[in-house]
Amino acid sequence: MDPKHNPLDIIREIGTIGAGRAATALSEMVSAPVEITVPEVQMLETAKFAESITTTRQANLVLVICMEGQITGRMFFILSPEDARLLGSVLLGVETSAVNFEDSLFQSSIKEALNIIVGAYMMALSEMTGFEIMFGIPFLALDVLTAIFIAEQMPMSSDKIIYIKTNMQIKNRNFDGVFIFFPDLPSINKIFSALGVEQQNP
Predict the structure, then answer these.
(1) What is the pTM of this model?
(2) Ranges 4-18, 31-45, 104-118, 140-154: which has the least confidence
(3) Which of 20, 117, 126, 131 is the most buried (most CB within 10 A)?
(4) What pLDDT, on the 0 to 100 scale, is given for residue 114?
């Protein structure tokens, strides 16, 4: 790849490839057409992101996964309560009013769906970099602060995050989610080196 390329262009390409694969897998899961797009990609300072999260009091639903292998770090996939309820209703085939976040069937269904999306993004990254990426056990947290607490128990450190906004359309319903990748410092350097680009400031 051209070293003059902006890293965000490469990340956007990874997100687009991953979104296409996730849409195919989710379509099979819900037996309906699924469209996933990546309208926004950013690289943010971890400290600034953490500050914005802790000052936001919305109780988002968050999937947390630890990455292992040649690339290490942590991943979040965040849904607002409204989008989580809508997605849950589609996955379970019930009205949104019947969705209960504490229900084990809802949690397992939403975890499976979000795991598909995260896995597709990471598979695209693995193929473009040539690195082997393995996943730890996914955790589902019912708020961001709990997710951060879970993530902090994982022995990783990051100074930058990769932020990919994800829009999903399933059965004529639209959902917005956010994929957050916290690669540790050696990993983010390895990723951009493998992609042939120099790491740049956001």
Answers:
(1) 0.83
(2) 140-154
(3) 117
(4) 92
